[in-house]
Structures are given as C-alpha cells and as structure tokens.
Amino acid sequence: MTFPRPARLVFALVAAAVLLPAPSRADEGMWMPQQMPELAGRLRALGFEGDPKAFADLTGFPMGAIVSLGGCSASFVSPEGLIVTNHHCIQAALQFNSRPDRNLMVDGFLAASRAEELPSGPGSRVFVTVAVEDVTAAVTGDIPAGTTGRAYYDLIERRQKALTAEREKQDGYRCTVASFFEGLRYFAITQLEIRDVRLVYAPAAGIGNFGGETDNWQWPRHTGDFSFLRAYVSKDGKPAAYSADNVPYRPKHWLKVSGRGASPGEVIFVAGYPGRTARFNTFESVRETVEFSLPRTIRRNVEQIGLLEKVGSGDPETALRVSTRIRGLNNTLTKTRGVHEAMVRGGVLGQKEDSEKSLLAWIAADPARQAKYGRVIAEIGALNAERVRTRERNLLLGEFTGGAAALGAAETLHRLAVERAKPDAERDPFYQQRNWPRTRESLDRLQRSLDRKADRAMMVYNLAAIARLPAGARIEVLDRMIGLSAGQPESDALVKISAWVEREVAGSKLYDRDFRLGLFEKTPAELTGTGDTLLVLAAALAPLQEEIRNAGKDLGGRLARITPVYAEAVLAQAGGLVSPDANSTLRVTYGTVKGVESRDGLMYLPQTTLRGVAAKATGTGEFNAPAAQLAAIKALRGGKATPYADSRLGDVPVNFLSTVDTTGGNSGSATLNARGELVGLLFDGTYDTVASDFFYDKVRTRSIHCDTRYMLWVMAEVDRAGNLLREMTIVP
Any residues with CB less than 8 A from the CB of 454 and at least 6 apart, and which? Predict the structure, then answer.
C-alpha cells in the first residue's frame, strides 16, 4: 500500500471551518506535527524565523529523523542508522549483555567497530513514523445513539482492529489507531518497525547516571544521559530479526550534531514521543489521584525498593537481576512525591479546581451550552465512582500477578492460550497474531531479570496486602488456596502465605528459558497438564481476571460515550488551537533556554558546566565520576584546548534548562535549534515541573537537557569514541 502524506488537521472545534484567535498559553503544548503551521505567530513572537511547516512533514527533515524506542524517544544521527538516545533508556540492553564479572550497567560499553556491536536483546525495537491519518469517521461515525457500555466498547475496538489490519498488510509496518481529545478524534499512526537493534556506546554509570536518585528531578544537574544504538535491516532494506548478515539501516534523514549546543534565550524545539498526560481529566478525577493514587504509589514503592534491595544484598547475581526494576521504582517514587507535593503544597490542585469552575460558569452562561454540556462532568464523576468501589481489590490482584515475573509469565501464557482459540479478529488486541512475536520476545527477554528469591519476596509482600482486604472485597480463590479469611491475625496469615509461596515458586519450571518458551503454543489444558504450580495458579485466577476485564470494558464504553462531549466543551471554551493530551504519539514542543525561580525564591541559571562535575565528584556511590573524566577535566583546567568549550562560560557546558513542555516518554527526545540541528537530548524535568502532567505550570515548568557539547567532549576526551565522532556530521 502507499502511505498517504499527513493531511492538515483542524482541532479547535468539531467541524470548525476556521480557527479562532488562540489565547496566550506560554510555551504549553505537546503538539501534533501537523498543528505546527498554526503556531507560526507564537513562534515568530519568540524570534523563530524558520518555516514551522517543516515540522508537519513526517517524511521530510527534521521529523524523518525522529524515532521511538517503544517507551523512549531517539533520533538518527548518521546515514548508517546510528541512533542517539538517553543512557537511562538503554538500561535493558546493558543489563541483557551484563554478567557479574562484566557489568556494562556500571562500566559502560564502546564498540570500536561494527563487528563489536551487541544485540540489544529480544523485543528491542525502533519505530519510524511514516503516516498519520484522521480516521475519526471510520471509528465513531454512524454509531446508533443508544449504543453504550460494552456494545460501544466492542464496536470501537472492532473498527480499530480493521483499520490496523488494513495498514499492516505491507510487511514491516506497525499501525496504532490512537484516541485524541478523550475520544473526540482518532488517528491511525503507521510506523516502520525495525527489529534488529544493537548496542553501540554507553558511557560509564558515573557519567550517564551521575547524581543518581539524589539529583533525579533536581536542578542543577551534571548528568551525561546519552547513549548510542544502531538500527539494522536485511540486505534488501526490509525490517528483519537479528542476523549477522543484516546491514545498517539507511534513513532518509538524520540530524547534524551542533558543536555550539544551546545558549540562554535561544528558541529550541523538542521532537519525540511523550507518554501520558491527564490535562483533560476532570477535577474529581485529579483529586482522586492526589488523595488516593499518589500516596498509595509512594508507600508501596518505598516498601518494594527496600524489599528488593534486601533480596539483592550479598548476592551479586540477584542484585544485577533486580537493578533495573529498583531504578524504575526509584524514578517513579521521586516523580510521584514531586507531583503530590506540587498538587497539595504548590497549589496545583487548586488551580485545576479553579479551571473547572471557570468551565462550569462558561457552560451555565448560555442555555445552548447548558443543554449540551451541563451534565457531562457529573456523569463522568458518577461512572468513576463505580470504579472506586472495587479499585483496591483489582489493583492488588494485578500487582500480585505482575509483581512476580514468573507468575506474570504464567498469566501471559494462559491468556495467550485462551485467546488463540478465538478467530483473530475477536481476540484481545494485545493477543492478536500480530503481537505474538513481541509476546514471545518478552518471555525470552525475561530471563535476564528473572529471579526466584525476588519473586518469592514480591508474592509474599502482595499477598500480605491481599490478606488485609475486608469482607466483601475478598479474592476468594486465593483465600481457599492459601487458607486466608477476613479479620485473620496478620501473623497467622503471614505464616500460611510464606509456606504456600515457597511451594508455588519451588514447584515452577518457568524460571527455565527453554521450558517457558516451549509452552508458547500450548492449549490451556496442556499448560495446566504440566503440573507447574504457577501455571495452575494462573488458570485458577483467570475467571476473576476475566470478570474484572469485562466490567472494565462496560464502564469504559459508557465513559467513551461522554468524554468526547467533555473534551468538546474544553476546546470550545478555549476558543483556539489546543494540543491534545500526550498518548505516546509523535509530538513537537517549543520553548526557550531559560533559568527558573524556585518556590523558595532561589534564582537558577539555565546552564551547568564541568566545574560542577568536579565539585560534586566524591569517588563513590552516585557521584563516582570515572578517573578518566576527572583527568580530562584537570587537563582542561590546565589549558588543554577543546572546540566544545563555551567562551562565555569559560568551560564545557553539561546540562541546560528550557521552558519546553514535556513528560515521561520524551526521554531521549532530540532538542533542535532553529536550523534543525541537534543541540541536546532531553532527559528529565525539574521537581516543580512534574505536576504539569495534570495542570501546566506556566511559571515553573522546566525541562532538563544534556548539551551536545558535553556529549561530544566525553566521547572525544574520556571514552575515545573517535569512530562515532567521525561517523556523525558535527557542525560548528
């Protein structure tokens, strides 16, 4: 099939012919590329003299160089498929290739030649977006007015599946039909899916993760959060599984790397794949997040981090297997604490409430608006209240099966076996045949993080919480299997839980890679017929999980009927161009390099330098800068010349702040100057920024970037990565 060129999109009002004058919203917005031409006025006001239409062409420059890694963002920086992204985005690849005696997660890695590049591991992907199509009419058109609940959910899902299947007829492409503006619009995003991804270069953790959790979400920063991968394809240029015969992918476009980096006041753009924001959520939904979800996440993450650290203590192999998970939990913990503090103490929750009051007043001021939108917020609230009644039980069950890696694998295998018996079009989207290779790869990739001790600990931890559920919210199948009951003394419950978990984990062969992968095509009866304890447990839990999924689909269908009406009201009140919530699709955001005033009145400059690295370096822990780096800094202080120093600063810049609007998933995003040159990599946000997922803070929102000058200096002076420097186009 021939992929269509992206059409110009009109977003302000449903079926609007023109856009009303847009309100001033600072640098807020994670914009679809096709929206960028409409922002010409705002960009000119910032001093941008280029043509924003360039961002609307996904197959042209620079957007053709921007890729997704399926959770992080990245970009091509050479005609030979070389990709730059964040150091923290390739931890799984480092872990996959690490051993206790060869810990790449600590020591880093550099391939001196193509032959030395390492497979990133099963499931590694590079996605290149090639087309975005408005398919709203095909998804939601001609649905009878009375259709709601499960019937509405299933109809929308069937239509999405059909659109996806049509666009995936051409081998090597992946399509997602994504919802925008709470279901008001749907777009089909088609991507080239590259399956052979190799590890090329990652600096040592003392550079790539300098500051660790102490500096996470903080400013000032001095972190070299960058790494390189390479995309490979078959000799005929098509995506293919890993093979020694594959050749580097040749992208149509790649970014030149700026040797000047970014300067204060400069207009910059960030292109990437932001994960999720919730700015279109109602106030009540956000309040529930603040009062329930965030405190719960904080408490449980603290407990799990302590538990996994204890499990890994004194056992290097286990410590290596749980290290990536601990780092992820720590990152989430820091962000969640920041969001909660900003929401409560920083007044963001109050700002969200005021915003909704303004919307309600706008609706009430006009009888026609009152008739159309007057009840929608209350109706959304009533439906969310239904979910609240069973949320803790449902959350704990999901955390129990997902918290222990081998039990999660058992659940996946059982669900796959059940779904495989259905026609492909009737399967759950995740278990359709198009996803089987990914599922198999995930079961394979699991081996590097699979650990019996960690699984035992997590199962006991989650079951102890399940044992505390009150009568009426019990998970009866677990009560019967373990011998639990409501009101049972915790000490008695823990004894039973510990003994039962020991038997379950000890009796499972799912920790063996060959056994696990050999089950991929088995039927449910064949799975339980193995007698494997965790497979039997997964089958026993399946009916309740199916019941929960069905209830969720019914509720989701009822919500999907009314949330577009709410979004339409928000857009109509705004009276101008508005960006949709992030949903892991390609976006562009803009802003300037700028410092910030913290809530305690401190004024922060927008750049840090190598002087800060040397000052922070302790030689241990999170601030263990490599000896080679400290020697290179000393040589620079001694007068050694480098093209990457900033004459104004008298030093090599390390990180910088900007006003661009970003979120999780943007990690690794290309930071571009007005000429489309790479001046940095986005890798974090400040502590005051994290609540912007819910409500944009136009005063304190700041993103943190790694300056290209620091990247180039580390590559030249510390790791001697001359082969990569020669491969890239570096512009002064």
Answer: 308, 311, 312, 318, 321, 322, 404, 405
CA-based end-to-end distance of the chain: 41
Strand 267-272 vs strand 587-592: parallel, antiparallel, or unpaired?
Answer: antiparallel
Q: What is the Rg, in whole angstroms, of the alpha carbon atoms belonging to the chain?
A: 26
**718 vs 632: CA distance, rounded Å:** 7
Catalytic residue, from 87, 88, 222, 705: name it: 88
User: Is 315 assigned a catalytic role?
Assistant: no
88 is catalytic: yes
Specify the residue for token string 């399926």. Answer: 70
CA distance linking residue 348 with residue 369, whole number of Å: 27
pLDDT digits (tens, 9 = 90+) for 172-205: 999 999 999 999 999 999 999 999 999 999 999 9
Chain center to CA of 197: 19
Are the C-beta atoms of residues 400 and 463 closer than 8 Å to each other? yes
Say if residues 219 and 683 touch (Cβ distance below 8 Å).
Answer: no
Reported residue count of the chain is 732
Q: How far is CA 194 from CA 59, 173, 284, 443, 477, in A?
A: 16, 9, 42, 19, 43
Catalytic residue, from 225, 693, 707, 719: name it.
225
Give every CB contact of residue 123 below 8 A, 6+ residues apart in sequence.
438, 441, 442, 444, 445
Domain boundaries 587-731, corresponding CATH code = 2.40.10
Read off φ and ψ for residue 696, nearest 5 degrees. Answer: -65, 125
106 SS3 class: helix
Is 113 noted as a catalytic residue in this protein? no
User: What's the rounded Cα separation, in Å, for the pair 698 and 635?
Assistant: 41
b/e sequence 699-710, b meaning 16+ C-beta within 10 Å: ebbbbbbbbbbb
- Alpha carbons 301 and 298: distance in angstroms, whole number: 5
Q: How far is CA 31 from CA 24, 38, 260, 424, 559, in A?
A: 15, 10, 27, 35, 25
> Over the stretch 497-543, which tens digit does the pLDDT of each residue have?
999 999 999 999 999 999 999 999 999 999 999 999 999 999 999 99
The predicted-structure confidence for 608-622, as pLDDT tens digits, reads as follows: 999 999 999 999 999
Q: For residue 404, what are its two tokens?
A: 């222990």
Q: Where are the domains positioned within the chain?
A: 35-255, 281-365, 384-579, 587-731
- Cβ neighbors of 480 (< 8 A, separation 6 or more) are none
Strand partners of residue 597: 603
Question: Strands, E, within 454-521: which ranges?
Answer: none
Burial class (CB in 10 A: 0-12, 13-18, 19+), 475: buried
**Of the residues 658, 667, 669, 703, which is catalytic?**
667
